[in-house]
């Protein structure tokens, strides 16, 4: 049986496992190559530097959330309901990432600190998704705002406690869901015309 073709996706999967096992401080490209059964030069053919590999694995991790949320953006129906679902889905996705695999979440939190450009693009994508929903709400007459993009940024910032990783320690508190619902409801009331 011929060996499996080395692809960027396989490398990223192996990198995630190596990061889970060793953490960001100790994980090396050699560890990733060893996990794949290839030379580290083979990994470098796909990712020119260790930093590029770490940035790509961070982007992949963040993109999982963006992809889940984008399906809500493209749904039909009232924008207010979609915004409610989008904000709830963002909070749940982040809370599950932190709670389901705390070691990997801590690893990615470290990597996010190293990958400013990736994080900036992620935030820009999420704000663009919010803008699309808010624009739909304005078109439907459900929301009133002179600038959907500015409002989207404000909504993202106002709900930061429920999606910014620096608040992750709070996400396991029993009252966090009630706190989230209060902020989400306030945001929705504020957008109504």
From TrEMBL:
<dbReference type="GO" id="GO:0000976">
    <property type="term" value="F:transcription cis-regulatory region binding"/>
</dbReference>
<dbReference type="InterPro" id="IPR001647">
    <property type="entry name" value="HTH_TetR"/>
</dbReference>
<dbReference type="Pfam" id="PF17935">
    <property type="entry name" value="TetR_C_27"/>
</dbReference>
<keyword id="KW-0805">Transcription regulation</keyword>
<feature type="DNA-binding region" description="H-T-H motif">
    <location>
        <begin position="28"/>
        <end position="47"/>
    </location>
</feature>
<feature type="domain" description="HTH tetR-type">
    <location>
        <begin position="5"/>
        <end position="65"/>
    </location>
</feature>
<dbReference type="InterPro" id="IPR023772">
    <property type="entry name" value="DNA-bd_HTH_TetR-type_CS"/>
</dbReference>
<dbReference type="InterPro" id="IPR036271">
    <property type="entry name" value="Tet_transcr_reg_TetR-rel_C_sf"/>
</dbReference>
<dbReference type="InterPro" id="IPR009057">
    <property type="entry name" value="Homeodomain-like_sf"/>
</dbReference>
<dbReference type="InterPro" id="IPR050109">
    <property type="entry name" value="HTH-type_TetR-like_transc_reg"/>
</dbReference>
<dbReference type="GO" id="GO:0003700">
    <property type="term" value="F:DNA-binding transcription factor activity"/>
</dbReference>
<keyword id="KW-0238">DNA-binding</keyword>
<keyword id="KW-0804">Transcription</keyword>
<dbReference type="Pfam" id="PF00440">
    <property type="entry name" value="TetR_N"/>
</dbReference>
<protein>
    <submittedName>
        <fullName>TetR/AcrR family transcriptional regulator</fullName>
    </submittedName>
</protein>
<dbReference type="InterPro" id="IPR041478">
    <property type="entry name" value="TetR_C_27"/>
</dbReference>
